[in-house]
């Protein structure tokens, strides 16, 4: 993929390095001279300019990108970049960083955001996930489709032990996408048995999260 990242601070550079290591083409857009350091991520294309300006985005060729990531430390900037990328340049996928959780409600498809990533929320979710067994933890929200990535860890005494995935009577708007078991990542098949300690990852609408709990016996 070709990915454009608005904001070449510590977060933007870290994302760029990870994506480059994954074999993707990356372009970093930075408006501040002090942050414009092409030597910091040599494999990326660098653009000096304001990503909130249509002219900068045009000159960078952002319409050729598969994904735009708004990763600055300013929520207002991230929302403007997201809106321009989606509405003016029809970028297929827009991911935006949420700096202040109080602004998270703004990060919707109305502002061109497909996925909002809130570091405080993710950290809180990781803490909950680490200590919560037998309860549903929301890890990530996909704003455009109003769907969530949620996790539940089966306790040691789960009644589901040994039962196949096909026995789970999940609601219509929920799907079990992955089972994490030790070091393994399992793409669940109907005949796969469940085990105590399994971390089950679901994609589901918020309305059916309680139904998932019921299907798992909680």
Automatic annotation (TrEMBL):
- Which InterPro entries does its entry note? K_uptake_TrkA, NAD(P)-bd_dom_sf, RCK_C, RCK_C_sf, RCK_N, Trk_Ktr_HKT_K-transport
Q: Which residues form the RCK N-terminal domain?
A: 1-117
Keywords, in A-Z order: Ion transport, NAD, Potassium, Potassium transport, Transport
Secretion signal: which residues? none
Please name the Pfam families in this protein's record. Answer: TrkA_C (PF02080), TrkA_N (PF02254)
Q: Which residues form the RCK C-terminal domain?
A: 137-218
Keyword presence, GTP-binding = no
Name the chain's protein: Trk system potassium uptake protein TrkA
Q: Which organism is it from?
A: Amycolatopsis thermalba
